[in-house]
Design brief:
alpha+beta; 25% helix; 79 residues; 3 helices; 3 strands; three-stranded antiparallel beta sheet
């Protein structure tokens, strides 16, 4: 899959807002339009649920691990 960068991508949300994770589940095209561009690329490839967690040191987020599944309910536990 392509790796995308820019302030609109999911990893930027992890850097700017520093949430513990990002979790999206997409059931329709309207919801897909709200996805960050990198998740939209995965959506176009058939993925419907997304989980991204930051990889960080004590001082900064240095990356993110993103997991995607074809099932919209792929990560149905409470995060």
């Amino acid at each position: 899959m392509p790796v995308l960068s820019g302030s609109e991508c999911s990893h930027s949300q992890l850097l700017d807002q520093q949430p513990a994770y990002l979790h999206y589940k997409v059931a329709n095209m309207e919801e897909a339009m709200q996805l960050p561009p990198d998740f939209k690329e995965l959506y176009d490839s058939g993925m419907r649920s997304f989980l991204s967690v930051p990889i960080a040191t004590d001082y900064e987020v240095v990356g993110a691990l993103t997991i995607a599944k074809e099932d919209p309910g792929g990560f149905e536990i409470d995060w």
